[in-house]
Every structure is written in structure tokens, then in C-alpha cells.
User: Fold this.
Amino acid sequence: MSKIFPSMHSKPAKFTFFALIPCWIVVFFLIPINLPLLGTGVVLIPWAVVSFFIGDMRLGMGLLILFGVSSLVRQFTEPRLLGAELGLHPLVSLLAVYAGWKLFGVWGMMLAPFGALWAKALIRKKGEAGQDG
Assistant:
């Protein structure tokens, strides 16, 4: 009976690395799918934390600096790239993304730039119609 229900005084079972293999498989399958949505911090921040825990401070700091630089570059270039792709001014695309996020969440953030593009096309069409008439 003691093997089925160990007492509180028995030693805990040893935890092996192999018990984590199913968890790592799930993580490695989910990261590539969600990486563009979540960003590089999904990989770099846990890697830095593990580096700090194992005592490699230089690698940990380097990874955090890399994350900071990549985040800054992304913040400055994303609106410009989005605007260039859609034909919108970068400030308009940035405002559309922000307004979409605040009003409708993630879906609004993804769809608001297209709404801004639609509004731009309507304004342009109305301007062309006003010049003809």
C-alpha cells in the first residue's frame, strides 16, 4: 500500500529532462507559427533569463540589448513599411493601427490600415468627381 500512496516522509520522485520533451515539442511547434505576431521577445527574453540563471551574464545582457535594439528598429520601421506597402503616409498608417487597436483590439489593429486605405480611395474618388462636375 505504501508504494501506491507514498507517505509525506518519502523522497520525491526524481524529475528528469525527458519529462519536458512533450512541452518542448509544443513550444517549438507554436513559436514559428506565432513569432511574427508575438515578436522576437518570445525567444530572446527566456534565453536571456536562462543565461542569467546559468551564470552567463555577458550572453544574457547581450540578448537583452539585442531585444531592445530590435524592438526599437521595429517600432520605427513598421509604420513606414506598412505605409509604403499600402500607399499611405507612415503617420496615417501608424494612427490607423493605434486607433484599430484601441477600438477593436487585435482584429482592428490588423484591419484598420485597410480601412484607412479605403477612406483614402473614397476621398480621391470624390475629389476626381468634383473636378469633373
